[in-house]
Design a protein that fits this description.
The protein has a two-stranded parallel ribbon with strand order 1-2. With 154 residues, it is mainly α. The chain folds into two domains: 43 residues, no CATH class; 108 residues, Rossmann fold (3-Layer(aba) Sandwich). The protein has nine helices and two strands, in the order ααααβαααβαα. The chain starts with a helix and ends with a helix. The longest helix is centred in the N-terminal third of the chain and has 28 residues. It comes from Spumella elongata. One of its GO terms (biological process) is coenzyme A biosynthetic process. InterPro entries: Depp_CoAkinase, P-loop_NTPase.
Length: 154
Amino acid sequence: DRARLGEIVFGDPSKLRALNKATHSPILQEIMRQTVVLMLKGHRQIALDIPLLAKFLVTSPRLLRLVLSGVVAVVVPPDVQLARLMSRNKLPEEEAKRRIETQMSGEKQRELADWVIENDGTLEDLEGRVAAFLRKQPHGRTMWEVVVLFFLAL
Protein backbone atom coordinates (compact mmCIF):
# COMPACT_ATOMS: atom_id res chain seq x y z
CA ASP A 1 0.00 0.00 0.00
CA ARG A 2 2.21 2.79 -1.35
CA ALA A 3 -0.13 5.54 -0.22
CA ARG A 4 -0.10 4.34 3.39
CA LEU A 5 3.65 3.72 3.36
CA GLY A 6 4.18 7.24 2.00
CA GLU A 7 2.11 8.72 4.82
CA ILE A 8 4.25 6.90 7.35
CA VAL A 9 7.75 7.52 6.02
CA PHE A 10 7.33 11.02 4.64
CA GLY A 11 5.94 12.14 7.98
CA ASP A 12 8.87 10.77 9.99
CA PRO A 13 12.46 11.19 8.75
CA SER A 14 13.73 8.35 10.99
CA LYS A 15 11.25 5.93 9.42
CA LEU A 16 12.27 7.07 5.93
CA ARG A 17 15.93 6.45 6.81
CA ALA A 18 15.06 2.99 8.13
CA LEU A 19 13.12 2.14 4.96
CA ASN A 20 15.96 3.39 2.75
CA LYS A 21 18.53 1.44 4.77
CA ALA A 22 16.50 -1.75 4.42
CA THR A 23 15.73 -1.40 0.71
CA HIS A 24 18.54 0.43 -1.09
CA SER A 25 21.17 -2.31 -1.01
CA PRO A 26 18.87 -5.10 -2.29
CA ILE A 27 17.46 -2.77 -4.95
CA LEU A 28 20.94 -1.78 -6.16
CA GLN A 29 22.04 -5.43 -6.24
CA GLU A 30 19.01 -6.39 -8.32
CA ILE A 31 19.57 -3.50 -10.73
CA MET A 32 23.19 -4.59 -11.18
CA ARG A 33 22.17 -8.24 -11.64
CA GLN A 34 19.55 -7.47 -14.28
CA THR A 35 21.91 -5.10 -16.10
CA VAL A 36 24.69 -7.71 -16.25
CA VAL A 37 22.22 -10.36 -17.49
CA LEU A 38 21.09 -8.05 -20.30
CA MET A 39 24.70 -7.26 -21.19
CA LEU A 40 25.57 -10.96 -21.31
CA LYS A 41 22.65 -11.43 -23.70
CA GLY A 42 24.28 -8.87 -26.00
CA HIS A 43 22.25 -5.77 -25.25
CA ARG A 44 24.46 -2.70 -25.64
CA GLN A 45 21.95 0.00 -24.80
CA ILE A 46 20.10 -0.46 -21.53
CA ALA A 47 18.03 2.31 -19.99
CA LEU A 48 17.46 2.23 -16.25
CA ASP A 49 14.69 4.35 -14.76
CA ILE A 50 16.00 4.90 -11.25
CA PRO A 51 14.57 7.82 -9.32
CA LEU A 52 17.14 7.28 -6.54
CA LEU A 53 20.11 6.80 -8.87
CA ALA A 54 21.74 10.00 -7.66
CA LYS A 55 21.81 8.61 -4.11
CA PHE A 56 23.30 5.35 -5.38
CA LEU A 57 25.95 7.30 -7.29
CA VAL A 58 26.96 9.05 -4.10
CA THR A 59 27.19 5.78 -2.11
CA SER A 60 28.61 3.41 -4.78
CA PRO A 61 30.05 5.56 -7.58
CA ARG A 62 32.77 3.22 -8.85
CA LEU A 63 30.52 0.17 -8.93
CA LEU A 64 27.78 1.91 -10.88
CA ARG A 65 30.14 3.60 -13.30
CA LEU A 66 31.39 0.16 -14.37
CA VAL A 67 28.08 -0.60 -16.06
CA LEU A 68 26.79 2.89 -16.76
CA SER A 69 28.22 4.65 -19.77
CA GLY A 70 26.45 7.79 -18.67
CA VAL A 71 23.80 9.26 -16.44
CA VAL A 72 20.85 11.23 -17.76
CA ALA A 73 18.89 13.39 -15.35
CA VAL A 74 15.37 14.34 -16.35
CA VAL A 75 14.87 17.55 -14.42
CA VAL A 76 11.61 19.37 -13.76
CA PRO A 77 11.23 22.92 -12.39
CA PRO A 78 10.18 22.87 -8.71
CA ASP A 79 6.80 24.53 -9.31
CA VAL A 80 5.92 22.06 -12.06
CA GLN A 81 7.11 19.15 -9.90
CA LEU A 82 4.88 20.28 -7.04
CA ALA A 83 1.82 20.70 -9.25
CA ARG A 84 2.33 17.31 -10.93
CA LEU A 85 2.82 15.48 -7.64
CA MET A 86 -0.27 17.06 -6.09
CA SER A 87 -2.35 16.18 -9.15
CA ARG A 88 -1.05 12.65 -9.68
CA ASN A 89 -1.13 11.55 -6.03
CA LYS A 90 -4.06 13.72 -4.92
CA LEU A 91 -1.89 15.22 -2.16
CA PRO A 92 -2.37 18.47 -0.29
CA GLU A 93 0.37 21.03 -0.96
CA GLU A 94 2.16 20.61 2.38
CA GLU A 95 2.34 16.81 2.02
CA ALA A 96 3.65 17.13 -1.54
CA LYS A 97 6.29 19.65 -0.41
CA ARG A 98 7.38 17.33 2.40
CA ARG A 99 7.92 14.51 -0.08
CA ILE A 100 9.81 16.70 -2.52
CA GLU A 101 12.10 17.88 0.27
CA THR A 102 13.31 14.29 0.76
CA GLN A 103 14.53 14.14 -2.85
CA MET A 104 17.76 15.38 -4.33
CA SER A 105 17.36 18.83 -5.83
CA GLY A 106 17.40 19.37 -9.57
CA GLU A 107 20.63 21.36 -9.16
CA LYS A 108 22.37 18.44 -7.47
CA GLN A 109 21.01 16.03 -10.10
CA ARG A 110 22.49 18.28 -12.78
CA GLU A 111 25.88 18.10 -11.08
CA LEU A 112 25.87 14.29 -11.06
CA ALA A 113 24.52 13.84 -14.58
CA ASP A 114 26.43 13.56 -17.81
CA TRP A 115 23.37 14.82 -19.71
CA VAL A 116 20.25 16.70 -18.65
CA ILE A 117 16.84 16.55 -20.28
CA GLU A 118 14.41 19.28 -19.29
CA ASN A 119 10.91 18.12 -18.37
CA ASP A 120 9.14 21.46 -18.23
CA GLY A 121 6.55 20.92 -20.96
CA THR A 122 4.04 18.33 -22.03
CA LEU A 123 4.55 14.58 -22.19
CA GLU A 124 4.90 14.93 -25.97
CA ASP A 125 7.64 17.54 -25.46
CA LEU A 126 9.51 15.17 -23.18
CA GLU A 127 9.12 12.24 -25.56
CA GLY A 128 10.56 14.38 -28.35
CA ARG A 129 13.53 15.44 -26.22
CA VAL A 130 14.24 11.86 -25.17
CA ALA A 131 14.02 10.63 -28.78
CA ALA A 132 16.39 13.38 -29.94
CA PHE A 133 18.81 12.51 -27.15
CA LEU A 134 18.75 8.78 -27.97
CA ARG A 135 19.42 9.42 -31.67
CA LYS A 136 22.69 11.14 -30.72
CA GLN A 137 24.00 8.36 -28.46
CA PRO A 138 26.59 5.70 -29.29
CA HIS A 139 25.64 2.06 -29.07
CA GLY A 140 26.93 1.47 -25.54
CA ARG A 141 29.52 -0.89 -24.08
CA THR A 142 29.96 -4.58 -24.65
CA MET A 143 30.24 -6.91 -21.69
CA TRP A 144 33.97 -7.30 -22.42
CA GLU A 145 34.51 -3.56 -22.19
CA VAL A 146 32.86 -3.64 -18.75
CA VAL A 147 35.12 -6.51 -17.66
CA VAL A 148 38.20 -4.54 -18.75
CA LEU A 149 36.95 -1.45 -16.92
CA PHE A 150 36.36 -3.56 -13.82
CA PHE A 151 39.93 -4.82 -13.76
CA LEU A 152 41.31 -1.36 -14.44
CA ALA A 153 39.32 -0.06 -11.47
CA LEU A 154 40.85 -2.61 -9.05
